[in-house]
């Protein structure tokens, strides 16, 4: 929980410098007045995503958490269908099925442990629901706000919501070494400033459903990083799963280009 808070809090100076340099103070006040409800929703959804996801990591395997948190495309497709009447194309459904099958292969035999792991798996599903809501909210809000303003305001809301959660969790809030601070700054820069800003920018140019499927690259990259950096072995099932995810994304993208 403390890591989730510092991830967004340490990103705020750069995000606010970016948005103030690009639009100025007056425009920010206007964005807040016009879209404060939507901004709060974006911040609350992603704060919920981070809080539940970090909790899930403590109870189940990283592989399970990565998979279940990326079930968001199912909830995004269902929400877009139910809320906006956008029935997904058959080719998109095929691509989604391939991508989800690939993520299941990436997990392999580690899926479905007992005890607290089941609670962790359940929290992973809730994480996916929060992430799906966040993606839909960002896609809608990006029609009215630039990436910089959206990221600055929503990250501020996230930090305000995550601070009491981290405090009440009873965890140590401050790193006990300079290495810890370097890691937190790296997470803030890579994940929040760069990663989430790129996602927010892309969501203004892509359909919400396809964007969600494209983010299934996350478990693929997590598996590859674990292989390279942590020495975790990849078998043929994991490689096959990565290939299926890429095929699924390609099919989903093709379906969005069809008229």
Question: How would you describe this structure to a colleague?
Answer:
With 259 residues, this protein is mainly α. It has one domain (2-257). Helices cover 81% and strands 0% of the residues. It is built from twelve helices and no strands. The model has no long low-confidence stretch (mean pLDDT 81).
What is the helix tally? 12
Radius of gyration: 19 Å
- The count of domains is 1
| Pattern of helices and strands | HHHHHHHHHHHH
- Classify the beta-strand content into a percent band: under 5%
Instruction: State the secondary-structure class.
Output: mainly alpha
The count of strands amounts to: 0
Shape: globular
Biggest β-sheet strands, sense, barrel = none
> What is the helix content?
over 70%
In angstroms, what separates the terminal alpha carbons?
44 Å
Low-confidence stretches: none
- Average pLDDT confidence is 81
Short description:
The chain has 259 residues and is an all-alpha fold. It is built from twelve helices and no strands. It starts with a helix and ends with a helix.
Keywords:
single chain, 259 residues, mainly alpha
Break the fold down into its secondary structure elements and pairings.
Layout: H1 2-9, H2 12-23, H3 25-59, H4 62-69, H5 72-84, H6 90-107, H7 116-141, H8 147-168, H9 178-203, H10 208-214, H11 217-230, H12 236-257
Helix pairs in contact: 1-8, 1-9, 2-8, 3-7, 3-8, 4-7, 5-7, 5-10, 6-12, 7-10, 8-9
